[in-house]
Amino acid sequence: MDDYMFKATVSRCRIVKENTSYLEIFNYSDPSFNTIEEHALTADEFENFLNRRVSRDQSLQQNASHPETFTPHVISLRPEAYISMAHSSGRHMIKMTRRLIYVSLPPIHIPNLTRPEIIHRKSDVRKKGLTRGWELMLSHDVKNGITTGFCKGTPSSDIVECIKHLKACVLQIGHPMLLPIIIFSHDVSYKTDIKQRDARDWLRRLEHAVSMRSEIEEKEGYVKEGVVDLDAVNRDLVECHSQVLWKRPKAYLEILEGLERAMREFYEKLPDRRRDAETRQLQASMMARLEFYRVKLQGIDSYAYTTLQRLDIQRSALYNIIAQKESKLNFQMAGEQRKLAHASKRDSAAMKTISLLGAIFFPGAYLASVFSMTFFNFQNGASAVSESFWIYWAVTIPLTAIIVGVWYVWEKKREARYEKEDFDLEKGSEDMEKDIMATMRKRTMSKASTWESKPLSKVGEKLGEKLGEKRREKGE
């Protein structure tokens, strides 16, 4: 069943092409005979590569450049190559390869103590349309001291530097944990500490802005003409929080525990003939380095925890300031509305007086105007109402209907105009909100006043340009 599931999983994966090379390191008792060779590995030479027997033999993809190279269900070797590795009796890589295909993030472990196997794949990160990360598969023959495996990484993963360090440590090449610890050392390098300290310095400037301390400087962009830009402070608080969460020490502490466990189990099962003074010294040195990283990561974790707590305090203070300003604004709006209400009340009282006077005098004026017409004659003894009085109604009723009709049409057009104005007002508000959000995004991307962003590497820029051209061709 395992063979079927493995082949089915590999067949479902999409293949991306990456440049592959192989690294051979020969380590002899006489260091003068040690050799290091690295050559391109073609598809037709892959079977020969699997059957080599040297101190360390690895296939490498050091500068994986495809945008989807670390996407789930994507592989960078032919399915036949993975199947060959799985069935290679000389290297016993079946468990190692299958676990990498099945699981995206397997832990570091040693499932077979007679032939330790180390598997790790760093979480693939997607940024600017590209996946980034690295993966490592190793298999070590305890009896013969032979290590084989597969390593792949993007330019941002420092795999090239790790391989350089591996070549420089040719005398310690017999230890299977050498390359994992080198990669781990690069991941927890001084850059993490510097990033945390820069974030703390950024936090101090934000604290000055929120608390309006005397140390605040206008060039930092938080104060304009004596007024604090709360939007800029809020935006930078979020960005600073994300910087503090970069490479959380807790995750690396868990990996470090896996490395230490693998180191101990490897040394316990190591044959006596391989436990010479040099191996014991190397084991002790690597364990001491891991202990150093443990203390360092614990210190960074405590440092980051304090920074996060202070960020929470500043965020709460900022929200209180914003709430106070909103309350003050609402109070001012309530005052303006109260003034408008009083003015409307005064206008309505005046209109009520005018309406009352019209209700009193309008009936009398109307009757006087009607009875003053020539259709009525009360002086002679003849009929008081003229026989032509119907003319008055014949003219008045149609004229009144025409006036009411014209008023109705005009009122409908006025309502339609008001509806259009309301729609344009709502659309203008939406467009204004979009412009504000676009401006905020541009200001967030620049971050010139608070955080110095490093430019992308030339390789990343070329990949971004190629990806943009492909999207434009597709009409995206």
Number of helices: 12
- H and E string: HEEEHEEHHEEEEEHHHEEHHHHH
Helix content: 55-70%
Low-confidence stretches: 89-116, 446-461
Describe this structure in words.
With 476 residues, this protein is of the alpha+beta class. The protein has helices spanning 2-12, 46-50, 79-86, 94-102, 159-168, 178-187, 190-211, 230-244, 249-268, 277-371, 390-446, 458-474; strands spanning 14-15, 21-26, 35-40, 56-61, 74-75, 117-121, 125-127, 130-132, 134-141, 146-153, 223-224, 227-228. Helices cover 59% and strands 11% of the residues. The two termini are 43 Å apart.
Features:
single chain, 476 residues, alpha+beta, 6-stranded mixed β-sheet, two-stranded parallel sheet, 12 helices, 12 strands, elongated
Spell out the blueprint of helices and strands.
Blueprint: H1 2-12, E1 14-15, E2 21-26, E3 35-40, H2 46-50, E4 56-61, E5 74-75, H3 79-86, H4 94-102, E6 117-121, E7 125-127, E8 130-132, E9 134-141, E10 146-153, H5 159-168, H6 178-187, H7 190-211, E11 223-224, E12 227-228, H8 230-244, H9 249-268, H10 277-371, H11 390-446, H12 458-474
Parallel strand pairs: 1-5, 4-10
Antiparallel strand pairs: 2-3, 2-4, 6-9, 7-8, 9-10, 11-12
Helix pairs in contact: 3-4, 5-6, 7-8, 7-10, 8-10, 9-10
Compact summary:
This protein has 476 residues and is α+β, with helices and mostly antiparallel strands. It has 12 helices and 12 strands. Helix 5 (159-168) crosses helix 6 (178-187) and helix 8 (230-244) packs antiparallel against helix 10 (277-371).
